[in-house]
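Please, structure for the following, as tokens.
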Amino acid sequence: MRTKAMAGIRTILVATVLFGAAIANAAGTTLNAVLYPEGQKADVKFQTTDRAPKSVLSGSVQSKQGQSQITINWSKLQPALLFGGDVNCWVLWGVTPDGAAYNLGELPVRQNMSGTANFSGAYMQFALMVTAEPLPIVRRPSDLVAFISMPSTAKAAKNTPFEFGAYRMETKRSTESIADSVYKNKAPVELLQARKAVELMDRYQAEKYAATPAQDAKASLTQAEDAFAGKSGKKGDVPQISTRTVALASEALRSAIMKIEAQKSQDAEAQRLAALTQSKAETEAERAARAKTEADLAKTQAEKVQIEADRAQIQRDRDMLAQQLSGALGKVSATERTGRGLVMTLAGGILFPSGKATLKPDAKVSLAKLSGILLMIPNKGLQIEGHTDATGADATNNRLSLERATAVKEFLKSQGVDESRLTATGLGSTKPVAPNDTADGRAKNRRVEIVIPE
């Protein structure tokens, strides 16, 4: 029984190929890393390889305070699943000159073959690359490279060419190029992706190790198939249900592989200790001590693996919460993720009369909406920062900026936000976001920023 179990584990461990454990150096691809100028928006053009469909890819990058906001646009982009085999989606990668490739997320190509997606990364100099992959969660890129970013023509941008070859070579496909392929299936792209995701999940027996998400994925796929066949639900719901199916199947496969790798590590450690024990003539006391050591090491290894798994889950939960919070705050006013956390910017001209610190009626409506969101996250502190333009004396600007920040604080407090969470600071004209020599620049500098640490 032990031999059969080990054989099963070895078979399932092939799944780690999907997530980057098996790396092969393919023929190198020349990429171009761009050091984007701080605070400026730069256009990005892409070169199409001979593997890719006849489509147009473009985008832009804006770097600010250690974060790069990336927008990708596409038209006539055929779905990656036309490669066949295990290929199921397009994934965007950020590749740094040292050869590290970071999964930025999926290009969600759907039935109309055109769209836009936004991504972000915590690095300043990088190339962009799009590959065809089995699932959106892969950790290393396959060798099915379809698009690579070209050198930037933006002023102050620095271009650095480099070779990249750390591709995953084992991705199964039916063809090496879809340059002349066209998606003609009547089923939504999302439904075919869901079918393939569940097929991969079942092939590697994920349900044995992650029963709940695997069973949920199968139930979700059944719901999508029934809606598509007209048996239940609405046909228009098929894309949304199918997208949920892919997410569930991916989570099941990821959880299963983590547990399998943990088991493999424990078994390897146990075998090493057994061989060491057999090579010595031990007394009863020594054998007892060895047994305890083996048990302690196995327990420590299991605890370490569990800690890493918990830490990864906490990070995913934090990222999801931050994304949801950013979306909710963005409906109230402009919000962005920075190194300090989420920063909401409220224009001073909208909040206050010129030179005053009395909130306008419309400003109170916006702040009341903000209060409702803040009450949903009671454990988050808030830094309220008042800013002015450079017009007038420093002492006047410092006093006005503090009074305005305090006015916002007091209003949020009146709406039920705990005062212990609120800190008001007046920074005057010391941190402009635009030049003060134009009316538009001065208007941008007159603002109140609310910082919510992540």
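The CA atoms of residues 53 and 180 lie 6 Å apart. The domain at 331-452 is CATH 3.30.1330.60 (60s Ribosomal Protein L30; Chain: A;).
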